[in-house]
Amino acid sequence: ETGVTQTPRHLVMGMTNKKSLKCEQHLGHNAMYWYKQSAKKPLELMFVYNFKEQTENNSVPSRFSPECPNSSHLFLHLHTLQPEDSALYLCASSPDRWAGEKLFFGSGTQLSVL
Amino acid sequence: KNEVEQSPQNLTAQEGEFITINCSYSVGISALHWLQQHPGGGIVSLFMLSSGKKKHGRLIATINIQEKHSSLHITASHPRDSAVYICAVRSGSNYQLIWGAGTKLIIKP
User: Do A108 and B30 touch (CB under 8 A)?
Assistant: First the structure.
């Protein structure tokens, strides 16, 4: 148990559906991250929030929309996804975006887009 | 070519064997991380190091800054060590984390 909880663990959705991924951390961290992990590829950083403000968006398509209502919660809203978006989506947190400490990861949401 | 390269990509060994996983990088770094990902997805940080060597139980991580190379060693390997081991470096210039593609380790009983 890392202190970072993601729901749901698995999600199957059609290309026209709208769904949301949720991430919650109880570590008192101020930075939260969304990563995409595709098979046999390095993790891809999608979004970074530091003190509830989005500090990075790594050219992520607009069909992915993040939301960070407070430092403990992070959402990823999904709409009109493509089959190539099927991947493991990982949430992580750290004390601060720039402090360089290690990341704490959730277990991920395995997303399949049909 | 990735800025962080891991080798081997896949490794299968017998229980009890000494395991070495390598990570080479091509950028200046402020720190290097080793992480473990079990089936089911969750990633756990094993080590963060910027010089020398760290040891935790049967795991040992070393780094050679001049050669831009790090190794993760597992002594007396056990089937529960089966996982994907990921190397990531924190860029010394823009502080970004740059990730390796991972090494999938299987330890057979």
Answer: no
Angle at B33 between CA B29 and CA B38, to 5 degrees: 150
Option in A45, A100, A103 nearest B45 (CB)? A103
Q: Are B40 and A100 an interchain contact pair (Cβ–Cβ within 8 Å)?
A: no
Are B101 and A101 an interchain contact pair (Cβ–Cβ within 8 Å)?
A: no
Alpha helices (H) along chain A: none
DSSP, collapsed to helix, strand or coil, labels residue A88 as strand
Q: Tens-of-pLDDT digits for all 114 residues of chain A?
A: 669 999 999 999 998 889 999 999 999 999 999 999 998 899 999 999 999 898 888 889 999 999 999 989 999 999 999 999 999 999 999 998 766 677 899 999 999 999
B99–chain A Cβ distance below 8 A for any pair? yes
